[in-house]
Amino acid sequence: MVTTSTRRRATFHSLVIAEVRHLTADAIEVTFEVPESLAHQFSYEPGQYIAIRTSLVGDASVRRSYSICQAPVEGQLRVAIKRDLGGIFSTWAISNLRAGMQLEVMSPEGSFTSQLVLDRPAHYVAIAAGSGITPVLALVESTLAGHPDNRFSLVYSNRTAMDTMFVDELADLKDRYPARLALYHVLTRERRSSDLLSGRLDAAKFREILGSLIFPTDVDEWFICGPFDLVQLCRDELAALGVDASAIRYELFTTGEPGRPTVQAGRPIELSAEEAVHTITFRLDGTTATVTSPVHSNESILNAALRVRGDVPFACAGGVCGTCRAVLTDGAVDMVENYALEPEELARGYVLTCQSIPTSDRVAVDYDA
Ligand SMILES: Cc1cc2nc3c(=O)[nH]c(=O)nc-3n(C[C@H](O)[C@H](O)[C@H](O)COP(=O)(O)OP(=O)(O)OC[C@H]3O[C@@H](n4cnc5c(N)ncnc54)[C@H](O)[C@@H]3O)c2cc1C
Ligand code: FES
User: Fold this and answer.
1) Closest Cα to atom 28 of ligand 1
2) Quick check: 46 pLDDT over 90?
3) Residue where a domain terminates, one of 73, 106, 139
4) In the structure, what pLDDT confidence band is assigned to residue 264 with cuts at 50, 70 and 90?
5) 182 and 297 belong to one structural domain
6) What is the pLDDT of residue 270?
7) Is there a contact between 219 and 247 (Cβ–Cβ < 8 Å)?
């Protein structure tokens, strides 16, 4: 398992696209070839994500994260991209990506992975909505293959059947594991034969599902991936039912803030000689660098660090993925958002540098820690 202490640092490599397959009218699956020489860089735990970096015509470089949607397979890496209405990269990717193209891909990261250490078979449950199925598909495949008696229950919400990604793959898994995989498709804009599986997956419906289809006392590990509101709702309901937070993993694709997220990387800052500054020192790959940041600019450590080193790790720049984390070794910061770090990581001094604004004159962080 890639843990915070043993984790390799995220780095970008050029990968060739082997195949692009349409999953629905608004989603594609992209398979990359991973050459033998990069096999170690691209090894991953089911549930992790990569980031893609590219320059689009008329735009600066964009980075977007995509969860890997299959259990590990030698020599390849597969992600699925769903169109985010009005979204820059997903719209471009769905119209333009083709086999043979090369993209800059970041080595896998993330902690939306199974953390169970059991000497008995386990029951896993996932609640996924829309493109939130991507990491969950990898988790379903790998956990069911991992032990002959493991079970997986999946509640998967979509607007309509036509919108649903990976219907065939899930049906194939159900054929392969008829007694061990329970699939509950919830459709919000189409009627299903059961009322419970029709309409919005709100707190009442979730509670009903937990009282009739899935029983929390029979579950070892929970995975939740979908829009911010759904993730919060499921976490709250599970907490109310006494499910220990340590048994719940969740992944957010966005912070759910209305409008465009405040991107905390690559923001131009005006520097002038007379101004009060914070002095930021950071260690990365064994080398230490220092940069100053005007106090008035309110910029993140990541934004400042990128001025002197282009390879400082980040992906979402919005506080959800955790790629930019580092240990705060000196000074104080105000961390605006944190949807990625676990309490245990916070206790060890980790901060999200894309969200951390210095509040002391001098600040030091260590990306290698
Ligand atoms: C860990 C992680 C894993 C992820 N995995 C997946 C995955 O497996 N599959 C997947 O499809 N996605 C995934 N995502 C989401 C993905 O990274 C992108 O955020 C998504 O594809 C949208 O990118 P975009 O460039 O198309 O949209 P952006 O251009 O970033 O826009 C995002 C949204 O903001 C809106 N917007 C843009 N500009 C404005 C504006 N000026 N005012 C108001 N609103 C605006 C857009 O309409 C759009 O709805 C993941 C994200 C994370 C953090
Ligand atoms: S880059 Fe994603 S949390 Fe900072």
Assistant:
1) 87
2) yes
3) 106
4) low
5) no
6) 74
7) yes
Burial class (CB in 10 A: 0-12, 13-18, 19+), 319: buried
Residue 74: how many other CB atoms lie within 10 Å: 8
Residue 206, token pair as written in the block? 């979730």
Q: Is residue 28 part of a domain?
A: yes
Q: How far apart are CA 109 and CA 45, in angstroms?
A: 9
159 contacts: CB under 8 Å, gap ≥ 6 = 187, 188, 189, 190
**Ligand 2 proximity of 338 Cβ (cutoff 6 Å):** no
Nearest ligand to residue 109 Cα: 1
Domain membership flag for residue 261: no
CATH classification at residue 320:
3.10.20.30
pTM of the model: 0.91
Residue 184's domain is classified under what CATH number? 3.40.50.80
DSSP string for residues in 144-186: HHH-TT-EEEEEEEESSTTT-TTHHHHHHHHHHSTTTEEEEEE
| CB 68 near ligand 1, within 6 Å | no
Compute how many other C-beta atoms are within 10 angstroms of the C-beta atom of residue 133: 30
Query: Per the structure, how many domains does the chain have?
Result: 3
Report the chain's C-alpha Rg in angstroms.
Answer: 21
Give the model confidence (pLDDT) of 299-352 as tens digits.
999 999 999 998 999 998 999 999 999 999 999 999 999 999 988 999 999 999
Q: Quote the Cα angle for 70-313-11, to 5°.
A: 55
Distance (Å, whole) CA 273 – CA 359: 20
3-state secondary structure of 330: strand
Angle, in degrees to the nearest 10, between helices 133-146 and 167-176: 10
The CA distance from 339 to 352, in Å, is 9
Residue 227 Cα to ligand 2 middle (Å): 17
Residues 106 and 70: their CA atoms lie apart, in Å, by 17
Residue 283 covered by a domain: yes
290, 292, 288: which is closest to 272 by C-alpha?
A: 292
> Which residue range is the domain that position 48 belongs to?
12-106
Element (H, E) at 92: helix 88-96
CA-proximal residue: ligand 1, atom 36 (nearest):
260
- Domain assignment present for 53: yes
